[in-house]
Amino acid sequence: MARILVTGSSGFIGKHLMASMPHAIPCDVDTQSVEGPFDGIIHLAAVSRVRDAEADRIQCLETNIMLTARLLEWKPRWFIFASSCEKPHNVYGLSKRVAEDYIRLRQPKHIILRITNVYGPGMNEDKVLPRIRRGEVKAVDDATFPFEHIHVSDVCEQILYAVKRFDEPAFKQYTMKLATGIAHDYEDLVDVATSY
Predict the structure, then answer these.
(1) Model pLDDT, residue 77
(2) Rg of the chain on CA atoms, in Å
(3) Is residue 147 within 8 Å of residue 140, measured between CB atoms?
């Protein structure tokens, strides 16, 4: 049986993914306590919000770039990286793009998934969709649109599909954006907020 490590396994996406991969090895940020080698690594651990990255830029760079570099030193056969659709206009977006470039440089067999806003059961309650659902947000500034969302189950499905791709004889590394259900106005966000 393949040994697959899932970093960020106790996070929002990680918990859902581990339910579908009971034999995967769970891991949070402390990689020192995990025994390698691994056939594959699904790297979900990150400082994953722009505001948290800005609050502690060094921690963001350490987690999003250096942790990625340390994981690649284990030389897994393949590597899946949960990146972001965020442009490199802030520390968070920049950290994800630098990590992507490092993966391309060091890991021949990889898939990079640029994931947009993920929603679903167990999501952080201070995000915009739960706040809309509770009636705490009545409008959203047009300058922040479009909000793109994808359900956590769809993200997990795409990750599981990506794992299978590595066994294809003609596998080629790729980067893919994961986003569905683009919301263009506040009413669309209300629909998304009440759908999970």
Answers:
(1) 96
(2) 17
(3) yes
Residue 165 pLDDT > 80: yes
Q: What is the dihedral of CA 98, 103, 105, 107, to 10 degrees?
A: 170
Burial class (CB in 10 A: 0-12, 13-18, 19+), 182: middle
In this structure, are residues 5 and 27 in contact, taking their beta carbons and an 8 Å threshold? yes
Torsion (CA) 139, 142, 146, 148 in degrees, nearest 10: -20
Name the 3-class secondary structure at 40. strand
DSSP strands (E only) in the chain: 4-7, 25-27, 40-43, 78-84, 110-115, 117-119, 147-151, 174-178, 180-183
pLDDT at 29 over 90: no
Q: Give the tokens for residue 113.
A: 């998934």
Tokens standing for residue 43? 């790297």
